[in-house]
From TrEMBL:
GO terms for cellular component: plasma membrane. It comes from the Bacteria. The keyword Heme applies. One of its GO terms (molecular function) is metal ion binding. One of its GO terms (biological process) is protoporphyrinogen IX biosynthetic process. It comes from Kingella negevensis. Heme binds at H9, K81. Binds 1 heme b (iron(II)-protoporphyrin IX) group per subunit. This is Protoporphyrinogen IX oxidase. It is a multi-pass membrane protein. Catalyzes the oxidation of protoporphyrinogen IX to protoporphyrin IX. It holds the Pfam family UPF0093. Its cofactor is heme b.
């Protein structure tokens, strides 16, 4: 059971991160355009991507929480990994708020801000990888 959960978790994580990395790139382009057709096309892409990536994130979080429950004992480093997953959930919810701002034409941030915003999930990924590989504590 554990290996199947691990398999599913890795699959969901890879799929979720594809969306977490690409959605803010669409935001960069949305913040840069002043053409209505391009704006609407990018907004449609962002909306569809958000809907597509959400189930992958849910699957990643569920599998990530269930895996340690199938094992005897609960290693301390797993708490940090779950925390990283919750940070990523918060990031995705922040992405939803940004998507609503673009939909309502109330975005106030520049494309440069979104370029920095796009890098935030990298830190959560590095933290989680560190925990999984080195298993500190």
């Amino acid at each position: 059971m554990y290996l199947w959960l691990k398999f599913a978790h890795i699959f969901f994580i890879i799929s979720w991160f594809a969306g977490l990395f690409y959605l803010p790139r669409i935001y960069v382009n949305l913040a840069m355009t002043d053409q209505a057709d391009e704006y609407n096309r990018l907004l449609l892409m962002a909306t569809k991507l958000y809907k597509f990536m959400t189930p992958w994130g849910i699957g990643a979080l569920i599998c990530g929480i269930l895996m340690p429950l199938t094992q005897i004992g609960f290693p301390t480093w797993v708490h940090g990994k779950i925390f990283a997953g919750l940070l990523l959930l918060g990031y995705q919810l922040w992405c939803r708020k940004i998507l609503q701002d673009f939909t309502n034409h109330t975005n106030t941030k520049s494309h440069k801000w979104y370029r920095v915003f796009n890098e935030l999930p990298v830190f959560a990924l590095l933290f989680a990888l560190y925990l999984v590989i080195f298993k500190p504590f």
